[in-house]
Structures are given as C-alpha cells and as structure tokens.
C-alpha cells in the first residue's frame, strides 16, 4: 500500500507539471519528514551526489558533442559515409544509420546524434524520394544509438548510482549497439528493395570518396581515440571526456576551421544548461532514493517479486512492461535514476549480472526516447523536420519493434553484452 501511495504522489506531481527534479526531491524530503527521519539527510545526499568524480564526464561529453554539432562535423561524417555506401539499395538510409552510429561513438548523446545527423540527412532523403514517415522514424531511432554505443551518459549515471564499473558498462554496450545498428540497416535495405520510394544513385568516383573520407578522418580518429583509450585503460571515462572535448575543439577550430567564437559560446551555454538539468534530476533522485530506501521499498518490492515471479523470464517481461510504461511519462535519465534502486536488487536476486542489467535497462530506455508523449528524440526530429509529431511517432514503430527484439536477444544470449568486457 505504501508503494502505491508513493508512486501515486509522484505521478500526481508530474501531472501537475512539477519539474522532475523538484518532484523527486520534494517528495523525498516530505517522506523523510513524515517518517520521522532527519531532514539533514537531504542536503547530505545532494552533496554526496554532486562531488562524484565520475559525474564530471557528463558536462565534458556534453561540451564535446555540442562543439562537434556547432562545428558541422555531422555533415562531414555523413558525406564520407554516403560516398562509400550511397549506391547500395537504400544507400542514403544506410549512410544515415552508419553516420548515427559513428557520431554516437563520439558524443554519447542521443539528442545530439539525432539533431546533428537529422539536420543533414532529412532534407536529402526526402529529396531522393524516401517516404517521409520512414525518414523521421529512422532518424529518431538512429539517434538512440547515442546512449547505447559507448560513451553513454545514461550508462555513466547507472554506473554512478550502482557503483559498477563505467568502463565495463561501456564495453558491454558495444555488442547490443552493433546488433541494433545492423538490424536498422537491414530494415532500411528491405524497405528500399521491396517497397521502393527512393531514387537509386550511381557510385561515387574514387577521388571523390577519398576527398570526403579525408575530411572526416579527424572525426573518425576522435571516435577511435575515445573508444580505444577507454578499452585499453589509457584513461578513465572522465579523462576520456576531457580528452575528447579538447580534441573536438582542435578538430573543429584548428583543423576544419568551422567553429567560430560565437558557436563555441553557444555550445558552452547549451552544455551548461543541460548539465544543470541533469545534475538537478540526479540530486532530486538521490533524495528520493534515500527516502524509499529508509522506507524499505526496494526490499519490499524484491520480496514481492521473489514470492510472485518465480522465473527469470517472467521477471524480465514484467520489468520490460514497467519500463515501457514509465517511458510514456519519464525521460531517459529519470527512468534510470528512479527505477535502478527499485529493480536492481530484485534483478541480482534473480541471478542477473548488474552490468548486463544496466545494458538491458539502457535498451529499454532507448524505447522511451521514441515513445510519446515525452520521447525527446520525437521532438528533436519534429523540430528539425518541421513535421507533425504524429508522423514522427508512426515512423518509429518498426524501429521500436527492432529495439524490443534486441532486448529479447539480450535475454536469450547474455554474451551479446558480457563477452567483450569479461571474456575478450
């Protein structure tokens, strides 16, 4: 009964349009006072949250992605990939997906990936005859690769909350990320092969390919530097973010000469605003998490699950349904922060590896990014394309099915996530 009342209060605050950070923090503080606990736990929880070294990676990765966005790196990446695969069936769609994957490996941000590649790819795809809803869905779903292919801001937050290795989480995201990218490409080629709606292209000449590739080399080198640096242990995720930001400035301002002082200021301001929003949500969630722990809600939920869900499969089905429903009203980070303390103890009790469960949660959070009414990627693509939200929402449906298929594959084949960090 206590669980129901607390969740009802939280949803009530959100329906009243109280910002997520203040809904979580305010309700957590109220629970502490009602339960007779010291209210000093609230500021202590906030301070213990915001002085975490690992969280420094969040503003640095955001700065890096915004600098790359303002510097027009997405255009160069798209042009280079398109030069190589544009003549394939559905080649422009394939180039779009690959560009999303590459930019995701640089930025770690879903919204930045969708906005950067969408700005370039949407007009081109529509001009070449691709069906508009398919184009919108492709870009909205392709942007979600930004939180699965490392580096990933939600994985950083999950690692911070659970005290698990962020490097292991990054490496565990590679397999599912490549699987999802491959399924998106297959869908794009099937759409082009059997349903048409696109204009075939002639192969680009070799000199043009090399010119386009040469301009994209610095960006590709940045992606390789971040991934290999983390994989080899040369630097931590936070150090990787700092190195990535510095390299992004050098590439856009020094090599490509596309970053102006005005654009750099805009990138810094947008990164600051997003960072403040994220840290406020984390602080509010920390207070809420402290309160529900004192009320023994995670333990009660774990007990309920162990008594009523007797198989791992049934547990995963219930978790998936809960996360999908939560995705209708919560954005990605809020879901990770609210649901991880509640679900992880039960997952461990059921025998799931916490690293695997983190990747599984991120896949389900990806679904939240493209489900209305609060799917951020839907609004990004709507804004970029100036299209009705209903068209974008309908366009993502086949891609949503593929995401759920990857989640199912993760359950059946756990090594899809765990092989690289623990067995390679």
Q: What's the gist of this structure?
A:
With 424 residues, the chain is mostly helical.
Global outline:
globular
> Which regions contain 5 or more consecutive residues with pLDDT less than 50?
none
User: What is the H-and-E element order?
Assistant: HHHHHHHHHHHHHHHHHHHHH
- Overall pLDDT metric: 85
How many domains in all?
1
Can you count the helices?
21
- The overall strand count is 0
Which structural class is indicated by helix and strand composition?
mainly alpha
Write down the Rg: 21 Å
Largest sheet: none
**Helix amount, in percent?**
over 70%
Strand content: under 5%
**Termini gap:** 46 Å
What does this structure look like?
By secondary structure, this protein is mainly alpha-helical. It has one domain. It has 21 helices and no strands. The chain has helices spanning 2-15, 20-34, 41-50, 57-70, 73-85, 91-107, 110-127, 132-143, 153-162, 166-195, 206-232, 237-255, 261-294, 297-308, 312-326, 332-349, 354-369, 376-385, 389-395, 397-412, 415-423. α9 (153-162) crosses α16 (332-349) and α10 (166-195) crosses α17. The radius of gyration is 21 Å and the shape is globular. The model has no long low-confidence stretch (mean pLDDT 85).
Question: What is the fold's blueprint, element by element?
Answer:
Elements: H1 2-15, H2 20-34, H3 41-50, H4 57-70, H5 73-85, H6 91-107, H7 110-127, H8 132-143, H9 153-162, H10 166-195, H11 206-232, H12 237-255, H13 261-294, H14 297-308, H15 312-326, H16 332-349, H17 354-369, H18 376-385, H19 389-395, H20 397-412, H21 415-423
Helix pairs in contact: 1-2, 2-13, 3-13, 4-12, 4-13, 5-6, 5-7, 5-11, 6-7, 6-8, 6-10, 6-11, 7-8, 7-18, 8-18, 8-19, 9-16, 9-17, 10-17, 10-20, 10-21, 11-12, 13-16, 14-16, 15-16, 15-17, 16-17, 17-20
């Amino acid at each position: 009964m206590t669980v129901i009342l607390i969740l009802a209060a939280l949803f009530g605050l959100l329906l009243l349009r109280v910002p997520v950070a203040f809904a979580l923090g305010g309700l957590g503080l109220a629970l502490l006072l009602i339960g007779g606990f010291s209210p000093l736990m609230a500021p202590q929880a906030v301070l213990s949250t915001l002085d975490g070294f690992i969280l420094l990676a969040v503003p640095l990765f955001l700065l890096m992605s915004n600098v790359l966005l303002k510097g027009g790196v997405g255009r160069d990446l798209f042009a280079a990939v398109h030069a190589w695969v544009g003549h394939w069936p559905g080649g422009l769609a394939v180039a779009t997906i690959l560009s999303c994957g590459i930019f995701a490996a640089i930025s770690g941000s879903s919204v930045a990936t969708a906005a950067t590649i969408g700005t370039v790819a949407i007009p081109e795809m529509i001009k070449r005859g691709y069906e508009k809803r398919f184009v919108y869905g492709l870009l909205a779903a392709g942007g979600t690769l930004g939180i699965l292919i490392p580096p990933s801001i939600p994985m950083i937050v999950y690692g911070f909350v659970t005290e698990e290795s962020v490097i292991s989480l990054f490496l565990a995201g590679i397999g599912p990320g490549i699987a999802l990218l491959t399924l998106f490409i297959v869908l794009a080629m099937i759409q082009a092969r059997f349903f048409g709606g696109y204009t075939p292209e002639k192969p680009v000449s070799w000199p043009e390919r090399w010119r386009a590739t040469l301009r994209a080399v610095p960006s590709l080198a940045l992606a390789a530097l971040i991934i290999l640096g983390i994989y080899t242990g040369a630097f931590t995720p936070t150090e990787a973010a700092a190195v990535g930001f510095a390299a992004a400035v050098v590439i856009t301002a020094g090599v490509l000469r596309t970053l102006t002082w005005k654009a750099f200021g805009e990138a810094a301001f947008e990164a600051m605003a997003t960072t403040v929003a994220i840290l406020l949500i984390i602080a509010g969630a920390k207070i809420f998490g402290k309160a529900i722990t004192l009320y023994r809600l995670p333990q009660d939920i774990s007990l309920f699950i162990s008594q009523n869900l007797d198989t791992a499969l049934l547990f995963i089905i219930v978790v998936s349904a809960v996360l999908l429903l939560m995705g209708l009203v919560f954005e990605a980070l809020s879901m990770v922060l609210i649901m991880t303390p509640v679900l992880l103890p039960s997952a461990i009790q059921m025998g799931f590896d916490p690293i695997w469960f983190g990747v599984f949660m991120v896949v389900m959070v990806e679904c939240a990014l493209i489900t209305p009414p609060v799917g951020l990627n839907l609004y990004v693509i709507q804004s970029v394309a100036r299209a009705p939200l209903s068209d974008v929402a309908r366009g993502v449906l086949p891609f949503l099915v593929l995401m759920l298929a990857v989640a199912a594959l993760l359950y059946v084949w756990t090594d899809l996530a765990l092989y690289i960090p623990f067995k390679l």
